[in-house]
Specification:
9 helices; binds nicotinamide-adenine-dinucleotide; 289 residues; 7-stranded parallel β-sheet; alpha/beta
């Protein structure tokens, strides 16, 4: 989608974090923004902040795990905004910790938001996108979508599902002759939004700045780029995983600290208790120990 000016962009989980940053970057290109989020208070703040920047913005509360809530969102958008051209499936949650120490409810919630919610949003809006002259579907997956993530097993596997779903829908739409609906699947390592507070970035990776990653995503949409893997080491990860014998890959992942990166995860809400609002770098964390 080379021209975003005047396009309507719907971002789930747009009230904060990378969703909010993407709203700013899409708006910089002249797009009309629709943010949808379960958190009504933050939604109001985000909407006010975007409006103060001169952005044409609407905000609607939605729970992506609830099909009735999504149906109501779709009806409100149709009545008050008009048909969307870009859907960014961004809303997500994580619950870190040893597998049996995380409640089954939290594991299930991870799949409900990250997978079922994303599938339900796509199910509700895909025909609207196909009906547009040009459209774009963005899925925010994760670098953990093609590796195992100790202490984040349900999160990582939810993102494996997002990648499999995104690739399948892309191929299906192409087969059906809907090449005008473009696709971008985003696989970032840790981003400094607070969602992964306490997690440690593996060696040779940096914690991504939300605004910088948001810029890369919007640039990818403009260029119809199918995959965004950030930072650089993430581009190598699937290649190394497929080429190396598993035992050697596991050893390398351990040396880089990829397998222990979630060991000290505390998550969103815990960042107020410390000075840092971002995940720790491995060097910082080693110095603290
Ligand atoms: N932060 C990272 O390090 C990181 C890394 C890789 C991928 N991601 C992915 O990026 C996306 C955004 O992450 P973030 O760091 O900005 O997180 P965030 O916590 O800052 O924002 C997520 C937003 O989703 C909303 N949300 C949660 N459940 C919802 C529901 N049921 N319905 C509607 N909205 C809901 C929240 O209210 C919140 O505003 C997520 O899909 C996440 O998995 C994040």
């Amino acid at each position: 989608m080379s021209r975003l000016e005047g396009k309507r962009v719907l971002i789930t989980g747009g009230a904060q974090g990378i969703g909010f940053e993407m709203a700013i970057k899409f708006a910089d290109r002249g797009a009309q923004i629709v943010i949808a989020d379960i958190d009504d208070e933050r939604l109001g703040q985000a909407k006010a902040e975007l409006a103060a920047r001169g952005v044409v913005v609407s905000g609607f509360q939605v729970d992506v795990t609830n099909p009735a809530s999504i149906a109501s969102l779709r009806a409100q958008i149709a009545a008050e905004v008009g048909p969307i051209d870009v859907l960014v499936n961004n809303a997500g949650v994580v619950f870190g910790g040893p597998f049996t120490k995380v409640s089954l409810d939290d594991h299930f919630k991870t799949y409900e938001v990250n997978v079922l919610g994303l599938v339900a949003m796509t199910h509700a809006f895909l025909d609207d996108l196909v009906a547009r002259p040009e459209a774009h579907l963005v899925h925010i997956a994760s670098a953990s979508g093609f590796i195992g993530l100790p202490y984040g097993s349900s999160y990582a596997s939810s993102k494996w599902a997002v990648i499999g779903f995104g690739e399948s829908i892309r191929a299906e739409l192409n087969l059906e002759g809907h090449e005008h609906v473009h696709h971008t699947i985003v696989c970032p390592s840790y981003i400094g939004t607070g969602m992964f507070h306490g997690a440690e970035a593996p060696k040779a990776t940096n914690i991504l700045e939300p605004a910088e990653l948001a810029e890369k995503v919007v640039h990818a949409v403009e260029r119809n780029k199918i995959h965004v893997l950030e930072p650089f080491m993430v581009k190598l990860t699937p290649i190394l995983r497929d080429l190396l014998p598993t035992a050697l890959y596991d050893r390398m992942a351990h040396l880089f600290g990829a397998d222990t990166s979630m060991a000290h995860w505390t998550g969103r809400g815990s960042e107020e208790q410390t000075d840092e609002s971002q995940p720790a770098t491995r060097d910082q964390s080693e110095a603290e120990r």
